[in-house]
Amino acid sequence: MRYTAKAMLLSGSALLSAGLLSLAPGSTAMAQEAIFVMPVRDVGAPSYNPILGTRLNAATTLIFDRMVIQDADQSFHGQLATSWETSADGLSWTFKLRPNVKFHDGEPFNAATIVWWLPKFLGTENAFMTDAIDKVDVIDNLTVKFTMKNPDPNMLFNMASSFMGIPSPKSFDQLGDKFGVTGAVGTGPFKLESFVVGQQTVLVRNDAYNSASDLSVNQGPAKLKKITLREIAEDSTAFLELKTGGVDMLLSVPTDFLPRLSTEKGTKVVTLRGTEVYYVVINTSVEPFTDIKVREATGFAINQKEILASLFGGVGEEAHTFLISGLAEAKVDPKLLIAYDPARSRKALDEAGWVMGSDGVRAKAGTRLQVKLWTQSGTEFKRITEVVQAQLKAVGIGTDITAFDAATITAQYRKKTEHQLAVRVYSWANADILDWFFAGKRAGHPNHSMWVNATSEALNEKAMKGSRTWDERVANFRAYHENLLSQFVFAPIYQPVQNFAYSQARITMPATVRGTRLQSQTIVDIEKK
């Protein structure tokens, strides 16, 4: 196996030796703050700019409030909006805004903020969330009306996205391209004190906070005065830090660490329903994956059951589509599910003219079926990728693994032709993730599959803009999803649950974790002992 590591991030131990985290447990300063470790998928997020960013990390919802937020039962609750209504034809939405809210820079939040904010999405990669809005009218200082180009039954989900965190107009315009890097100003429960990409983010409490939703018990400023969010690319390093008291909480725990954590006295693990899917990107624009037969063979070579059992102890679910299983749009025609079938995989390669060689790797016209298999730095990514490598080899596809840090791999995807296969994960609980990863206009990044197809584009357009009701939207996205499955533009692997762990000796958690993941609505209720 060839294995190359590029541009690795500082590990937790390197941060300590560099003196970036010199506070000792039990010190006066430490007693006033909590230290969290971000999920590995968040490592290397380059900015806290919710309008322009395509990768945001776990601190985003602590800095920025949104119009509404979503609970685990998919219900929506007001944050910066206190109420809303839509017309019977879906062509207008009216939002009442929370009074007496100020940004961290002292500027007021009001209807004029919304008029400034929404047009900023035009021409950005996040514009799809606001495309259906034709104009915004101010009814009064705390009331706005959206007139729609077309009905958007997904409006509230969009408003609840972390990409729809509302920044201060004054600070956003003053900082320009540096907003989100040298400064990030919202109305959230915490203010950004410092941010070092790939290392850590330090937040301090917003003592004027008054815009908590009804999902929070605490309706005032957060209990914690300071939060340091560290970025540690290796799960084993993060686990050791929790065990030895260097950190108070891991915001994400790989499933294979659960047995070890269960034996740690004073450590509590909380499990939430998953919103992630691991999958293999297939670059459809480069050989040999321009051939649908080779893509088909790749998809059916992945043994999801083996990965679930051997790497994750049976915790989580096998993934056989691109969407999380709880979504109605994931309930596709069973014939289109991509599940382990080595006989079908080998047959597809035979039909494509790839002949098995003596070394176990197929060849065609003197060219070996040896391809690049990319992954991200991090224990879980590496382990999954190594198993995928072995499973592909079993049907005659040879691979060379390269691991990149998150920032570097994104730059490589943008080159469009450098990658062939890659193991990735996303976290999202809405079918519009299909538009994000497979729309032709985003080929390169985030459409890493480089999928550009007229039929798919028409189905995507209908799903995104041609749905008048929620039921129509489900049907349209299911049709689009089925089309992508039929073209084998990815290979699904695994759907994990969400695990986080904390020290009961140092942290007091609220009785219930609210929301689809651990975010601001719960973190404002966390106390340090």
UniProtKB/TrEMBL annotation:
<feature type="signal peptide">
    <location>
        <begin position="1"/>
        <end position="31"/>
    </location>
</feature>
<comment type="similarity">
    <text>Belongs to the bacterial solute-binding protein 5 family.</text>
</comment>
<protein>
    <submittedName>
        <fullName>4-phytase</fullName>
    </submittedName>
</protein>
<feature type="domain" description="Solute-binding protein family 5">
    <location>
        <begin position="76"/>
        <end position="430"/>
    </location>
</feature>
<dbReference type="GO" id="GO:0043190">
    <property type="term" value="C:ATP-binding cassette (ABC) transporter complex"/>
</dbReference>
<dbReference type="GO" id="GO:0030288">
    <property type="term" value="C:outer membrane-bounded periplasmic space"/>
</dbReference>
<dbReference type="InterPro" id="IPR000914">
    <property type="entry name" value="SBP_5_dom"/>
</dbReference>
<dbReference type="InterPro" id="IPR030678">
    <property type="entry name" value="Peptide/Ni-bd"/>
</dbReference>
<dbReference type="GO" id="GO:1904680">
    <property type="term" value="F:peptide transmembrane transporter activity"/>
</dbReference>
<keyword id="KW-0732">Signal</keyword>
<dbReference type="Pfam" id="PF00496">
    <property type="entry name" value="SBP_bac_5"/>
</dbReference>
<dbReference type="GO" id="GO:0015833">
    <property type="term" value="P:peptide transport"/>
</dbReference>
<dbReference type="InterPro" id="IPR039424">
    <property type="entry name" value="SBP_5"/>
</dbReference>
